[in-house]
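Structure first, sequence second, as always.
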């Protein structure tokens, strides 16, 4: 937990990104919830996120809120692609990561298409900007 605090030193701990990220304690609480589940063997071999387990088992993060990266990140990426301004490299990275999450999900084909179009549009703008200088 010390490294988590060091990495976030100077961050706006009340800001939306910090709240969206949550705290490593939510992962510990997820492990404790699984350990207390007498039917935990039914989850053998599965991959689970702390936010989905929080919904299933009812635990919260240290601040009393459930961890919610699963809805926070897609919402933040939608905000990025809805902006008219040129994205920063970090915002482009976030869009690429979201595309990586959804590109194999048939139910997210529309979102994947929007993300690809956004990245293509900004790739073209970067290429045009570089060739005109």
């Amino acid at each position: 937990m010390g490294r988590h605090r060091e990495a976030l030193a100077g961050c706006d701990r009340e800001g939306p990104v910090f709240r969206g990220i949550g705290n490593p304690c939510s992962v510990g609480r997820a492990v404790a919830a699984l350990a207390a589940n007498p039917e935990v063997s039914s989850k053998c071999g599965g991959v689970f996120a702390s936010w989905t387990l929080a919904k299933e088992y009812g635990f919260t993060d240290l601040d009393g809120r459930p961890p919610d990266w699963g809805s926070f990140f897609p919402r933040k990426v939608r905000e990025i692609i809805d902006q008219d301004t040129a994205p920063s490299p970090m915002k482009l990275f976030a869009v690429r990561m979201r595309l990586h999450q959804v590109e194999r999900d048939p139910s997210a084909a529309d979102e994947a298409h929007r993300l690809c179009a956004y990245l293509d549009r900004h790739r073209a703008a970067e290429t045009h900007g570089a060739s005109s200088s």
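Margin note: The chain has two domains: 2-57, 71-131.
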